[in-house]
Amino acid sequence: MARCRWTACLGIAAMLMLAACGGNGEGGGSDAASGGDSAPPKPAEPVTLQFFHTSTGVSVDKFMDDYGNAIKKKFPHVTPVFTPLGKGNTIPELIAAGNTIDILWASIGHLHGNLLEYNLQYDMSELIKKSNFDLNRFEPTSIEMMRQSAKGGIYGLPIGNSSAALFYNKDLFDKFGVPYPKDGMTWDETYELAKRMTRQDGGKLYRGMTFSFQHMALLNQFSLPHIDPASGKATFSSDSKWAVFTDNFLRFNRIPGNEVDAKQMLLAYQSSAFFDEKISAMHATLSGGNPWASDNMGMIDVVTLPTFKELPGVGPQGYPYYFNITSMSKHKEQAFEVIAYLASDEFQMERSKKGFLSALKNPAVHQAFGQDSPSLQGKGLNLKALIPEKLARPALKTKYQSIADQRLMAGWYEMVQGKKDVNTGLGQAAETTDKAIEAQKGK
């Protein structure tokens, strides 16, 4: 019986081989009759995808250089169109005019006040599942932040990342014979260094430290949310860690010579004192930009953001930005295909080489950082400090994030000028935040 089955199998195999070869002779099979193996794939239908960014400062040319041209090259049937934020081009104005946004580009700090505020969110979880897209490729907190905002879903993919770091002016440290800052310093050590570097010299005041308090608070290492998600109230006075955090930065502006007035307390001055005037020795700010892009920035290097003694080894939170498919898009599958490409190892590798921080975990992508950037290469820069080894746990953001940010900064301005103590200033920030939220809810 087994021998019969084996003989039958051989016969079937022989018949299949003859059938396969028949296409080469006269009267071949249907493939020969149709003139080839199979019909060529149908060209993809042309589609226009409308992009919008929730921040100013990005031109159409900049968008095309960073993303649009790569999209057109990868997907010839896709025409990316970018609308910059500006007068007449806000989200409510675009919606009122009947315009569509297919992909909304927003940082985690702007996600709630834009995507969710105007009910543009779309959960792309099914598209992710359908395409077998692997979310484990990303730095974990970038996905955790999105899931917090999307209540377990996914509204967008992280296309880039940022955090915070401590930049320093090597020339000033050399000038005054003070050792450079180091990775892994505590805030207490940094404070002592700032005191040493703050001085008058040659009729010029040199500041030991400047910083962006708003970004330090947004990415705070204690993972403090601005708004309690349970109560919907501001946390500035209800969580004592806010006082510890705020006092840490206030002391830098109590150093004799490093005090600030109403103009100097603003971020524009704090940043300019370091990057433009070069009278600040150290500057704590977001790490996602490229301060070396200018030819005269060769004296700048960077170390990891200092840590709190209560949180040894814990860096700031990440600050990723996402490309989100909107609920109004009529081309969701094509939009996802484009976003997935922008999050691919291939595209992220090219971005990293140009000096843009990636949200991927891939070590090779991070090791390639700045390889094609003339402003970053050959200077021995400590680029690994731009993203800490251990990011702080992400604090939950809400749709009222911008309201809380503004009120906290108003309180900070009062405190840094000595008009209010820490507890009073934070109490005022909490009270005004809560009132503003209630007013917003009543609209």
Automatic annotation (TrEMBL):
<dbReference type="InterPro" id="IPR006059">
    <property type="entry name" value="SBP"/>
</dbReference>
<dbReference type="Pfam" id="PF01547">
    <property type="entry name" value="SBP_bac_1"/>
</dbReference>
<feature type="signal peptide">
    <location>
        <begin position="1"/>
        <end position="19"/>
    </location>
</feature>
<dbReference type="InterPro" id="IPR050490">
    <property type="entry name" value="Bact_solute-bd_prot1"/>
</dbReference>
<keyword id="KW-0732">Signal</keyword>
<protein>
    <submittedName>
        <fullName>Extracellular solute-binding protein</fullName>
    </submittedName>
</protein>
